[in-house]
Amino acid sequence: MNLSYAQIRARVDAAAQAAGHPVRLLAVSKTKAAAAVRELAAMGQLAFGENYVQEATPKQRELTDLGLEWHLIGPLQSNKCRDAALHFDWLQSLDREKLVEPLNRFRPDAMPALNVLIQVNIDGEASKSGCAPDAIPLLARAIARAPRLRLRGLMAIPEPNPDPVHRRNAFDRMHRLFDALQNAHPAIDTLSMGMSDDFESAIAAGATMVRIGTALFGARARVP
Ligand SMILES: *Cc1c(COP(=O)(O)O)cnc(C)c1O
Asked: What is the pLDDT of residues 36-52, one digit of tens each?
């Protein structure tokens, strides 16, 4: 029995209750074996996040019987758009307009539209993926025009900072960006932010989806 799953689930639910809105838990299974995913799925967890298309597809093949929902949360290179569009239910890391056309073109008609979050570089870090906050409106319009994509909201990975106030600040700024985007696109419903160390703070700031790896699966053996 995986104790941490029940514990994390309870903490997410308690934080969601306190914040007054529902929150989805995405289990981040990067570097973890298909068997670990299967174990969590047996406990009721059905949505999983992976950083790399090439790491995810063999696991997905091994687990097709489970009907899981797969989210691509790592940076997307243009030459991986086809695989992303074929093998995932959600893409959380769309950060430039150039990716919109190929993703739309490669998404098979037989599948539902690909759910898309715009990744925002909320702390303006030089080395990070994500678009600048002021690039959100144009990118959102391009996604909304693509019939095979469905704009669902925003995602961010705030700068790792030991000061929780600093991170909470970034979450609050994301919430304001989300509200502004929702004015133009009323159907968006997802603000994905918060990881193992700070998901409760993210939920208090308005996160509707948290992405948790380490706290569920244990430390990763190698750097993702
Ligand atoms: C690895 C990763 C996570 C999970 O991080 P933990 O600290 O292990 O919970 C969440 N989001 C993204 C984008 C990641 O790459």
From this structure: 999 999 999 999 999 99
Task: Give the integer Cα–Cα distance in Å for 92 and 126.
Answer: 20
DSSP label of 133? G
- Closest ligand 1 atom number to CA of residue 51: 15
Candidate from 71, 73, 90, 167 with most ligand 1 atoms within 8 A of CB, to mutate:
73
Can you say whether the dihedral through the CA atoms of 181, 95, 148, 23 is positive or negative? negative
SS3 53: helix
Residue of minimum CA distance from atom 11 in ligand 1: 211
- For a ligand 1 pocket test, name from 4, 5, 211, 212 the mutation site with the most ligand atoms within 8 angstroms of its C-beta: 211
Whether 223 shows a pLDDT value over 70: the answer reads no
- Report the top-level CATH class of 5-216: alpha beta
What's the pLDDT at 66? 98
In sequence order, the β-bridge partners of residue 149 are: 114
Enter the pTM of the model: 0.96
Per-domain boundaries in the chain? 5-216
pLDDT tens-digit map of 60-116: 999 999 999 999 999 999 999 999 999 999 999 999 999 999 999 999 999 999 999
Burial class (CB in 10 A: 0-12, 13-18, 19+), 75: middle
